[in-house]
Input
Amino acid sequence: MIQDDELRAAFARLADHAPHQARVQARLHRAARVHRQRRALLVAGGVAVGVGVAGGAAAVAREILREPDFGPDARTPGNLPDPVAWPAEAGNTAVPLRYRPTWLPEGYVEHARGTTVDAGPDQLMQHRAWYPEGISPRDVYEGPPYISLDLVPASYWEIAGWRSPVSVNGARGGLGPEGSTPVLLWEAGGGRNLALSVNGLSVNDLSVSGFADSRALALAIARSVVPDNVSTVEVSLSLGWRPEFPGSVVDYETGPSGSFVRVVVDRTMVLGVAIDMQTSDDIYETEPITVRGGAGRWFRSDTTVIVWLTLPDGRLLQASAERSPITGVQVTEDDLLRVIEELRIGPRPANHWIGTR
Amino acid sequence: MTFDEFVGARLPALLRYAMVITGDHYLAEDVVQESLVRAQSRWSRISATEQPEAYLKRMVLNEYLSWRRRLRAVPASDQTIERATRPVDDPSSGVAERDAIVGLIAALPPRQRAVLALRYYEGCTDAEIADLLGCREATVRSHASRALATLRAATTTSVLKGG
Output
């Protein structure tokens, strides 16, 4: 049983891994110099961009001193209805989702769907997530418990080396420890793996579901997964242009809190554009900028550029470009502005599946 | 106190704070640097507050939990998972067990880790944490409860496997 003083000691040890101040101080000096230069340019001539292209267009009771017994490898009986194929709004694209669960614990409804949009078949990644019924889009950012199913290339998350091997309806899989994300990984065939995340559920949540730990719950869900190809994710955003980086992929996600398209390098977002995502720019000192023919605002620093713009139909566009702390990739201000100018924005997706099982 | 004097005196503490909040060396550096760059242009106003360091810590926390980093919330990296799954070699050794707990803390969802860090590293009350996160005290307790249940379940299993 972990004690409070053990936690304090653990956090103190975590703090010992803090980065050294010298790098941050050097970056601050460089940022201050860039800021002074930029302000001099602004005083001299201002900043503007031309009008660009716009158009329609994404319980197990734990046994002491031995591995838990998760039961025989048998398909979990379903409790979910058959999926429904909803047509996409004119101008948007419906992308088929490859897999779906047929069993979920009571009270969880679908909240997010996503897919890579420019990857070849061997880079396809898809995402679905379920949250407790009744949760508001705002609450999603509070970190509630959730269940997610991800389809990934086998090289993205490899099963070899995972601590507890398991079988999922005859397919090779592996279980991670309690609290890991994802907690279960298994082969889907065709060079792909499926991953199940059960995140943030407390012991009380699990006991209501009839499970004593998230791994047992994940295994039950996984053993209910079947091919789908009826459900779709409606893609409403596409990048007319983007900077190219080796190994980058573009993915899209939509849900009740809006839709976004992002460029990911080495598992880190370096560029993202979101529509309908409600946040505030109050904490930033912003400057005016004209983009897509409209009056926007932007914040710029040594490592980050953020643009806010209200579109003619009243929807809020937010775009962000960042330097990856791992890869060092830098999307320039001009790159981000060109991405925004050439972004193809379709109608708000219908997303009839939100809140359903 | 000038901005440079503040940075010289308090940067190490800010970095340690960011490290426990983010659980990631690179992210900690990123959010602190980002927050200080923004603070520099408003330093006259920040330095006039009663506790400039507390203001900076709030900026660091908001920067880490902002929507842009939510968009960046791709699943945990292999390094995070590897740290979290590192076997406890010697459960009778306090050092090995604390390493396991550190790894598990790093693998928690961001808000849950932030709540625990504010409670056990900063010594904040639930009311103070709620104010910092912009949520209700009940939400703070919910995050803490879930995080502690995850840590306790995982450490119990790890200790028992080594026994």
User: Anything to note?
Assistant: Chain B touches chain A through 78 residues (CB under 8 Å). The first helix of chain B runs from residue 3 to 22. Chain B has ten helices and no strands. Residues 72-93, 159-163 of chain B have pLDDT under 50 and may be disordered.
